[in-house]
Amino acid sequence: MRVDLRERVRTRLVAASQEATVTNVASALRAEGVVLGDDALRDAVHSLNDHMHGAGPVQVLLNDPVVTDVLINGATEVWCDRGAGLERTELRFSSEQEVRRLAQRLAASVGRRIDEAAPFVDARLPDGSRLHCIIPPIAVGGTTISLRTSRTRPFTVDELINAGTLSQGAADLLREMIDAQLAFLISGSTGSGKTTLLNALLGLVTPRHRIVIIEDSSELDPAHPHVVRLQSRPANAEGMGAIALRDLVRQSLRMRPDRVVVGEVRGVEVVELLTALNTGHEGGCGTVHANSAADVPARLEALGLMAGLDRQALHALAGAGLDAIVHLGRGAGNTRQVQSVHICQRAAGGEFMTLPAWSLEGGVWTEKGSARALSDLIDARRSPTA
């Protein structure tokens, strides 16, 4: 169906408060002086539903179970990630106006707005997908929409092994860390699979434990029988009503958690998380953006400074509260892989540091210098009733 005809039919349906059913679309087409055959009519209904309720031309990508990200850079560039890195697709929008309408409709579906006064939106769609939109003039090349799809169920550890994200040795080690209630962070770049891995690992937590998850945009939904999920809230149009992650971390400590999980540590909430890990809440975890496990101390130090925490205090909290860092990166074929596990220790001067215990080298899960120290820590923490 031509774009101009589709828009005229859509306008008729909206004006009549009608859904894009075969009967309604056929009637609207007749009003436009157009008659379509059965196959063409079914295609028109699908196209109209995608543009009225779905994501328009890119809905076909969101329906693909292997696609994890869909990125729209204006009207002429659509990229996706099918698990092996970004690839440009042949899909296009008819105009910048069409992309902007999509951004406005997606934002409106979750009670948000996007316009010159509020030029960007970061939200969770009803189907669980993560949405980020930003419009001109902030987005110079045109309206930009980023969609991260949500699986109907989380990956299991065995599925991550089959996908090449985890080696069997890494999976066995991470299971032991979960059982021993080690506190850890998963580090990596954007799109490296941090949330996917954390979701799978939380599914390994004993059913007797209560997990409280705190996130900016709800993504974690582990296969576990006792999970409480908290989500921060941005300020309203008047600048009121904001609920920050650090507020929710404080609240979580009053909810009798066995494990406190911060989906992504990227701001001042690092102080509350590290404080929680130092108050008897073992097994806490989260994710953090970092180039390597060795860079995590510097990353946490920078976040701590944002919160007004001096370097010495940050290193003291991190050194006492964190046990390990699990780092994800891209391997051969651009696949996501767990590339190393570091143990967290404090140097003689009190400085928080990480030391390599295991790493993936040439496709082989290889023991490093601190492997014995990590093993001893796991043995010391493991509960006979866990």
Question: What can you see in these coordinates?
Answer:
This protein starts with a helix and ends in a 5-residue tail after the last helix. It is of the alpha/beta class and 386 residues long. 34% of the residues lie in helices and 22% in strands. The strands form two sheets. A nine-stranded mixed beta sheet has the order 9-8-10-11-7-12-13-14-15, with helices on both faces. A six-stranded antiparallel beta sheet has the order 3-2-1-6-5-4, covered by helices on one side. The chain has helices at 3-15, 22-31, 38-52, 59-62, 96-108, 157-163, 168-179, 194-202, 245-252, 269-277, 296-306, 311-321, 371-381, and strands spanning 69-73, 77-81, 86-88, 120-124, 130-134, 144-148, 184-188, 211-215, 227-231, 259-262, 285-289, 324-330, 336-346, 352-361, 364-367. The protein has three domains: 1-53, no CATH class; 56-150, Beta-Lactamase (2-Layer Sandwich), CATH 3.30.450.370; 157-381, P-loop containing nucleotide triphosphate hydrolases (Rossmann fold), CATH 3.40.50. A hairpin with a 4-residue loop joins strand 2 (77-81) and strand 3.
